[in-house]
Amino acid sequence: MRDRMQQSRFELKYIISEETAMRVRDFLQAYIHMGYIDVDEYSVGKPNLSYPVHSLYLDSRDLSTYWDTINGNKNRFKLRIRYYDDAPGSPVFFEIKRRMDHCILKQRGGVRKEVVPRLLAGYQPDPAHMLSRAEKQYVAIQRFHYLMQQLQATPKVHIAYLREAYVSANDAFRVTLDRDVCAEANLEGTIKTQMTNPARSFQGVVILELKFTDRFPNWYRDLVRVVNVMQCGAAKYVDSVQAIGHCALEAPHSVVEEAPPRLSIPGQPDFRRERLGPLPVPDWVLEQQGASTLE
Fold it and tell me: Can you give the pTM of this predicted structure?
């Protein structure tokens, strides 16, 4: 199965209401009919066209990648392990997401799930552990290891959400709508989908991301104008760290409590980040055992 990851791209984020998300979906239907874009293969047939995404983020003891984002460093990176279910035979991807000024660069290497503890301990994978023999994937894991050791990074936060995705045939354009973001401290590095006491950020809103590899297309401009949204920040890892708190992450210093972000719609009330302590685990997290494997 083809890997449709955009290795180099630009991305714009918007925090929108569910009503606006439905307008985005309706807008995209016209461009689906014209052949500009189509529903992502992993969204097809799923409830609400959405599939689960799980990421285990690594960071240093003092949360240096979190603080790089807070401080607005133009050249920064995050280390994460991405997966889509907890079936024993499904793949796991070690990813480096790097921001260079306004451009997003991604490297990733896919491995078999059973070798994750060994890789987190600093060992290099054997060729038999790799999902692909492509050199770039092995190089990505080597680079991941280098950065992990440089930061002395360890597992910190498990983040999960539901993603509705649309993608062009040439992978130049990708539109995603992320809902129901939840997070939990995971210091052991266990690859799991279940959560027992999740912190909920971006509660009651949808994160719209417009991703493109070259120029901002005219139809993206039309989408933004028609649904009347404004670009803003929406960093899932940052908001999740702040919702969980530094004590649960065994970090030595308190994290920043920022002013709640606004919805990306002029005239709408503020979106308030929920920090209510124990909250119900979303049904889709509880029911995910045996979900389909994604690459």
Answer: 0.86
